[in-house]
Amino acid sequence: MSRSGKGTEKKPGRNVRAKSGLNRAILDQGWGKFLRQLSYKQERRGGLLISVNPHYTSQMCNCCGFVDSSNRKSQADFKCIACGHEDHADVNAAKNILAAGHAVFACGEELRPTPSKAVKASSMKQEPFLGQLVA
Q: Which of 21, 49, 112, 121 sits a CA distance of 20 to 30 A from 67?
């Protein structure tokens, strides 16, 4: 988020001054302090804070698990090239982060999506479902 907006000699950046102000504001926020305070508040109220690695969550399909950079058509559009699922890119990433948090909570493992053509496998720590659910 705080990458330089200068560009190159052939393709100079636009609004460099505004971008540098935004960069300064982002870096001044103190994200470590925020995370520490959030963790403290959750513990105090009996809640649980689960950290999830966000890498590739915006490129992974939350329906089939296929990860590819071409799934993300634009800043706002997501369309899986494997199964055709369409969603807002941020909503899709949020669903993937939620699923990764549930996996950490349920199985004690971190899901790390990697860019590959393979569909993700189910957790090895999850017990297989052997019967019907009874209501």
A: 49
